[in-house]
Amino acid sequence: MNTNQNNTLSNSEPAMAGQGRVVILGAGESGVGAAKLALQKGFDVFVSDFGVITDKYKAALEKLGVPFESEKHTEELILNASEVIKSPGIPATAPIVKKLKDKGISVISEIEFAKRYTNAKTVCITGSNGKSTTSLLTYHILKNAGINVGLAGNIGNSFAAQVADENYDWYVLEISSFMLDDMFQFKADIAVLLNITPDHLDRYDYKLQNYAASKMRIIQNQTHNDFFIYCADDEESLKAISGLNPEAKTYTFSIFNAVEAGAYLQVNTIHILTEPNKEFTMSISELALQGKHNIYNSMASGIIAKVLELRNETIRESMGSFKNIEHRLEHVAKISGIDFINDSKATNVNSTWYALESMTTDVVLIMGGVDKGNDYNMLKDLVKSKVKAIVCLGKDNKRIHDAFEDDVEVIVNTFSAEEATQIAFHLAKRGDAVLLSPACASFDLFKNYEDRGNQFKAAVKEL
């Protein structure tokens, strides 16, 4: 059972504008944005962060005139809240969150709060892998089509801050399972589920079905006027959907089988059909995003575009001109005939599987970090066939050694991006690729995956 579903009733009566005290837990992008919107709507606002607040967000809170505290949670300043907006990074098991729930105080996400104050429609994209790429591609297509659209959620600027400052007609929202856990009345006009693979299981009692149930909250509150788009090839998604009977109009996408409504691949051509006799086709060689996983991402974005009745010429141009995000299969340099590829955003096993699957040369793989309950079995065949050496980058690499010691001849431990890059360079030969695709979170040695990717890129440039 989803750990937060019991709290739905306590969230059914939101605090009204201008009434009550809103406490925000976490002073990152979403928290500071929520503070801005809550202040604008007349609430008594307080921000509390158990960690260190960065100078950027401290300055933003000071400019707003919002009282805040850093490196502590003062209970008497928090447990008197009418409602609490919680950062997605704070688990439901955190002591302060448990105390709030025990008192019956509503705990919601920034996304839930911000949606109360906008009439804009939303495209909400979730999935274990491909969320950022698909969100950015969708935003790119909509913007090119002249739609007044914002980008928020797990990417870009805070949704709440944009609701406070902007007046968009549509938002493309990248939505994580952590956000979904604290969303109750929220409704997606267009909901997209890309895939479900084991990720963040440490937050879900190490049960895939709990994580999958969180992902399925993307369709909660949808009606027959809304749209739900999902991958017909993804076994876990199909399992999670079975028995739910989504009310929204559904479209599927597949690279193996033709579908009646949605998108499919046939002889290297994508076919998208959302209405009878209105088909869009595009050769996969024309797509800006290459690789099997990106065919799925392009299909999902293409269906969204067709649901919105955008012109075929706009869709084709946008899907052919899009530039992917930093730290996702990003080509850094070619040195002595060796390609260096930064896939630091691959923080789970499935992302690394996609990266390896797209490689056409022998690979020296840099992987490791904070293991989130990873099952490395799905990588074994690809590692055997494509990986000549593994360079571990993390404080504890035992599980990687145990998983692959019979599959590759060389597994080396390193403790900095510079050391990992230099050793990988020496292990590779002309024609090989050095791929940073960690399959793990970064917090043991780095601030975040961006920091890890940037340090890797800097190390490559020093070679």
From TrEMBL:
This protein's UniProt keywords: ATP-binding, Cell cycle, Cell division, Cell shape, Cell wall biogenesis/degradation, Cytoplasm, Ligase, Nucleotide-binding, Peptidoglycan synthesis
Stretches assigned to the Mur ligase central domain: 125-304
Gene3D superfamilies per UniProt: Mur ligase, C-terminal domain (3.90.190.20), Mur-like, catalytic domain (3.40.1190.10), NAD(P)-binding Rossmann-like Domain (3.40.50.720)
EC number: 6.3.2.9
One Pfam family it belongs to: MurD-like_N
Domain of life: Bacteria
Positions annotated to bind ATP: G127, S128, N129, G130, K131, S132, T133
Protein's cellular compartments: Cytoplasm
Function per UniProt: Cell wall formation. Catalyzes the addition of glutamate to the nucleotide precursor UDP-N-acetylmuramoyl-L-alanine (UMA).
UniProt similarity note: Belongs to the MurCDEF family.
Official protein name in the record: UDP-N-acetylmuramoylalanine--D-glutamate ligase
Organism: Pedobacter lithocola
